[in-house]
């Protein structure tokens, strides 16, 4: 099964063979070789003899048919045919990837098991020629967000067939279902969707025992969740919503950029109010450049319908698309929802026109009981969101509201450590340019000890505003 892949600015496309196969009949219940359906020819495959074309250094190698699945495959979209499989990037359940501006470096994400999804880098010897170069696996340093890239000998075909075996040898870091991977030219950073999985503790334990390292952000979350010394192997460790990660290409740090949620903590998955702003199981990603601003595009593919992922009383899943202005703080309240697809459908396949004013995306495999045409997969062209973003920017600037006397109590003011609100409320702090700096939920106290000295505004959910001085 193909999913995601790589889009480049020079019209080259790779498709990801995500659905990992362990045998010609691996007994998973969704076997593509089963009962004569799907792949019917189970004969061994010899690279360079059977189409698609071979691969320098691997031609003549004979492998089992299932071993010829699970690669990034370059395709000619105009001719609708495969060009080559990237055997030298390793055999994985690939989902997404990005090619950097040097046209040599490729960052690849794998949609695999909890604590066993690899982050891979390939660096070509010659720009534009991805048949020769070096392959690396990411290994985070113990107790640190930074890491190193460990080379795997990609001239050894056995290594590439069994790259997870090589990952275990070097204690490569295992993530939880990496999805799309995108590069932003304005920040020179890579953004990765880590979609999460509800209760990964047993899977985490298994792969840790096999040699995979655990990302620091996951261990940090386990501490917050009260998992004790068991960390991510504790039954208390849950990952219902996933997150977006960011990779700093200079420091090799990987950390959480935007956490999914908000968290429903009662342990049953039942709740009385649907969150006003939420993000669940990010999958597709993109970067939209519009009017000299960069927006991260986030598309959901829900893992379930519990714990706030859909409204109360709804069992079918409905996925949404959000934009996040990358000049603003990466918090849920700064997400702008611009599209929702019918029940049962995944929203995916983002791309945009060169001027950023048209978005194209797919509504994929919706429930059949939706009314026509929403019971079919669709490709949608979306425009007009430019006005929505402009309206959001104006509405989020509270400075114009202060003169109307529409205020509430705040003390002390000026303040340096914390401020007390006149009642328990939802409130946000903005700078003088209207950028949201901090959000407080259901509280009458806000910690401001980490804020820079200056003038700010506090606005509550009723649009009441107070000007404050941080000293």
The low-confidence runs, each spanning 5 or more residues with pLDDT under 50, are 391-406
| Number of distinct beta strands | 27
What share of the residues does DSSP label as strand, in percent?
35-45%
Number of helices: 5
Termini separation comes to 57 Å
Oligomer: single chain
Report strand order across the widest sheet: 7-8-9-10-11
Mean pLDDT across every amino acid position: 87
Describe the protein.
The chain has 471 residues and is mainly β. The chain has two domains: 94-393, no CATH class; 398-470, Immunoglobulin-like (Sandwich), CATH 2.60.40.10. It has helices at residues 157-161, 163-169, 201-210, 216-224, 385-395, and strands spanning 2-7, 13-17, 45-46, 62-63, 72-76, 81-85, 94-99, 105-110, 119-126, 129-140, 147-152, 178-184, 189-194, 243-248, 253-259, 282-290, 293-300, 320-325, 335-340, 346-352, 359-364, 378-382, 410-411, 418-431, 436-447, 454-460, 465-470. The termini are far apart.
């Amino acid at each position: 099964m193909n999913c995601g892949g790589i889009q480049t600015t020079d019209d080259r496309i790779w498709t990801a063979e995500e659905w990992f196969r362990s045998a010609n009949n691996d007994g998973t219940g969704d076997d593509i070789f089963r009962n004569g359906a799907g792949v019917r020819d189970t004969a061994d495959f010899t690279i360079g003899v059977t189409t698609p074309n071979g691969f320098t250094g691997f031609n003549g190698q004979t492998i089992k048919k299932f071993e010829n699945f699970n690669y990034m495959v370059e395709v000619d979209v105009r001719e609708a045919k495969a060009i080559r499989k990237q055997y030298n990037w390793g055999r994985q359940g690939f989902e997404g990837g990005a090619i950097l501006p040097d046209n040599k470096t490729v960052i690849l994400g794998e949609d695999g098991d909890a604590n066993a999804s690899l982050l891979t880098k390939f660096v070509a010897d010659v720009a534009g020629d991805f048949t020769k170069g070096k392959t690396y696996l990411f290994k985070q340093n113990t107790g640190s967000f930074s890491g190193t890239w460990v080379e795997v000998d990609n001239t050894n075909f056995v290594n590439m067939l069994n790259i997870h075996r090589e990952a275990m040898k070097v204690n490569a870091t295992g993530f939880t279902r990496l999805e799309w991977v995108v590069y932003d030219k304005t920040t020179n950073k890579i953004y990765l969707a880590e979609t999460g999985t509800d209760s990964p503790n047993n899977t985490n334990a298994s792969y840790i025992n096999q040699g995979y390292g655990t990302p620091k952000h996951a261990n940090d979350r386990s501490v917050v969740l009260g998992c004790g010394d068991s960390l991510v192997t504790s039954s208390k460790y849950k990952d219902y919503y996933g997150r977006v990660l960011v990779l700093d290409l200079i420091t090799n740090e990987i950390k959480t950029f935007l956490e999914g949620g908000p968290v429903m903590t009662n342990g049953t998955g039942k709740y009385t109010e649907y969150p006003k702003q939420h993000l669940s199981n990010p999958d597709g990603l993109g970067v939209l450049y519009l009017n000299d601003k960069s927006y991260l595009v986030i598309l959901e593919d829900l893992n379930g319908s519990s714990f706030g992922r859909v409204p109360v009383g709804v069992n079918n899943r409905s996925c949404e698309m959000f934009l996040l202005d990358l000049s603003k703080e990466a918090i849920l309240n700064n997400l702008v929802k611009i599209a929702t697809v019918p029940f049962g459908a995944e929203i995916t396949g983002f791309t945009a026109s060169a001027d950023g004013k048209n978005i194209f995306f797919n509504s994929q495999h919706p429930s059949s009981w939706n009314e026509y045409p929403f019971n079919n997969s669709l490709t949608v062209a979306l425009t007009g969101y430019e006005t929505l973003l402009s309206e959001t920017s104006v509405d989020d600037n509270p400075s114009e509201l202060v003169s109307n006397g529409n205020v509430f109590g705040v003390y002390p003011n000026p303040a340096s450590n914390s401020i007390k609100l006149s009642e328990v409320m939802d409130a946000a702090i903005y700078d003088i340019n209207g950028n949201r700096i901090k959000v407080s939920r259901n509280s009458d106290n806000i910690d401001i000890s980490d804020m820079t000295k200056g003038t700010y505004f506090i606005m509550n959910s009723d649009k009441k505003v107070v000007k404050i001085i941080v000293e």
